[in-house]
From TrEMBL:
Pfam families: MBOAT (PF03062). This is MBOAT family O-acyltransferase. One of its GO terms (molecular function) is acyltransferase activity. It is found in: Cell membrane. Keywords: Acyltransferase, Cell membrane, Membrane, Transferase, Transmembrane, Transmembrane helix. The chain crosses the membrane at residues 6-22, 51-70, 77-99, 105-131, 151-169, 313-336, 356-376, 396-417, 438-458. InterPro entries: Ac/AlaTfrase_AlgI/DltB (IPR024194), AlgI (IPR028362), MB_O-acyltransferase (IPR051085), MBOAT_fam (IPR004299). Its EC number is 2.3.-.-. It is a multi-pass membrane protein. Belongs to the membrane-bound acyltransferase family.
Length: 466
């Protein structure tokens, strides 16, 4: 079920009314409703994949209890969780990728191999909920978390519909305690949550979808477009993926807030970063912090000398790129970020008095590397970079000028809003209650009007493919 769909427009108000109709001391009843709603939400795509969530839930629930109770075999139980969750990912997301890569490797030396691939569909959101459940077991193993004996609460934690398919990746230490305590109705939560949902839809529908309609044709066939058009598409994709994914996060966080839950912030104005290191502290925060805590630090972090530090940064980002998708383009995307992080740590940053230059340089580098993320394959990537760096740029943009104008209208509004937040040092999660009632009504009316004018039912969220 898509957030930007008629089905969700009916689904969520129904859940909202039923949920708050239950007395808040009936915690388990509320959780049962949320669990059923979450399974309906996810099963809307393909009910067969519900078995994967249920399987992962059962495994990690019992593994968590066994790790806490075991005296001598704690690591063995942890490995059960790791192998099951990574096994699901390997089978459904990476099996065909590795087989096809193996065939291509042998073909380079003139040998033909015949290895079958699987005809399977990638389950939506599998990368998110497997990481979420696996971190639960790891935290118990590290004795940073006590397992819950409430199976309904744990099942709801795994499948909670606002963040099930594209994050944020919520930690058990944050979400499970909220599921085990009373949720109070608070007017400020409603106001903040509703405002953040509206901003999320604006970012998705008015900005990201408009940019997508403009650049999809360019990325699908880069060979037939001139350098000017390619350059504009590369520039705009940085904003499409940011406003698409941050918009999803806003809707998820706002929806959870309407139900009395507090999610962690997932974006913090990443394009105002003055280094790649800062960018990863502001971009997809739930993933970057997960990679830091469960991959980079266990690899050794910065504890074993400079060479090992570089290795750990490189491996963390390379695997982070592979997490995003089963393509060498994603691996290269992550690899370049790892190299840039290592360079920053090794040679230091340009002095802070050159912050504007640092900001522009960071945005330029991030934008170039996004090409690997968006291009359909490595062949298209080569074409795009060739046209970017060889030109000529004397040809005019080729495309729908009316769509280009409307796209820059929405993008300008969104960037001015982000600049306002940055200059004021504000967070979107808290902004709703800072706006007086008359201004709040005006702002919501303006946002909704733009969403109606720009609405297109054809656009999925980018991160659903991961």
């Amino acid at each position: 079920m898509l957030f930007n769909s008629l089905a969700f427009l009916i689904f969520f108000p129904t859940v909202f009314i039923l949920y708050w109709s239950i007395p808040n001391n009936k915690i388990k009843t509320q959780n049962v409703l949320l669990l059923i709603a979450s399974y309906v939400f996810y099963g809307w795509w393909d009910w067969r994949f519900l078995s994967l969530i249920a399987f992962s839930t059962v495994v990690d629930y019992f593994v968590g209890l066994q790790i806490a109770n075991a005296k001598n075999n704690r690591k063995r139980w942890l490995l059960v969780s790791v192998f099951v969750n990574l096994g699901l990912l390997a089978t459904f997301k990476y099996f065909n990728f590795f087989i096809e890569s193996w065939i291509e490797l042998w073909s380079l030396i003139g040998l033909e191999t015949h290895v079958g691939t699987l005809n399977i569909v990638l389950p939506v959101g599998i990368s998110f909920y497997t990481f979420q459940t696996m971190s639960y077991s790891i935290d118990i193993y590290r004795k940073e978390l006590q397992p819950t004996k409430d199976f309904i609460a744990f099942s709801t934690f795994v499948s909670f519909f606002p963040q099930l398919v594209a994050g944020p990746i919520e930690r058990a230490s944050n979400l499970i305690p909220q599921l085990l305590t009373k949720r109070e109705w608070k007017h400020e939560n409603f106001k903040n949550g509703f405002f953040q949902i509206c901003i999320g839809f604006f970012r998705k529908v008015v900005v990201a979808d408009s940019i997508g309609a403009l650049i999809d044709g360019v990325y699908n066939e880069p060979g037939i477009h001139n350098s000017t058009t390619i350059g504009l598409a590369v520039f705009l994709y940085s904003f499409q993926i940011y406003f698409d994914f941050s918009g999803y996060s806003d809707i998820a966080i706002g929806t959870a807030k309407l139900l009395g839950f507090q999610f962690k912030r997932n974006f913090n104005l990443p394009y105002f970063s003055t280094s790649i290191t800062e960018f990863w502290r502001r971009w997809h925060i739930s993933l970057s912090s997960w990679l830091r805590d469960y991959l980079y630090i266990p690899l050794g972090g910065n504890r074993n000398g400079t060479v090992m530090l570089y290795r750990n940064l490189f491996l963390t980002m390379l695997l982070g790129g592979l997490w995003h998708g089963s393509s060498w383009n994603f691996v290269i995307w992550g690899m370049f970020h790892g190299i840039l992080l290592a360079i920053e740590r090794g040679f230091g940053l340009i002095p802070k008095k050159y912050n504007l230059f640092n900001n522009l340089l960071t945005f330029f580098l991030v934008t170039l590397i996004w090409v690997f993320f968006r291009a359909l394959d490595f062949g298209d990537t080569k074409i795009i970079f060739q046209k970017l760096f060889t030109g000529p740029y004397r040809e005019l943009y080729i495309g729908d000028i009316g769509l280009l104008v409307s796209t820059f209208y929405g993008l300008t509004l969104a960037l001015l809003f982000d600049l306002y937040l940055f200059r004021k040092g504000l967070f979107l999660e808290d902004l709703g209650n800072r706006i007086k009632n008359v201004a709040f009504v005006f702002a919501i009316s303006f946002i909704v009007l733009n969403i109606i004018l720009f609405y297109s039912s054809a656009s999925n969220f980018i991160y659903f493919q991961f």
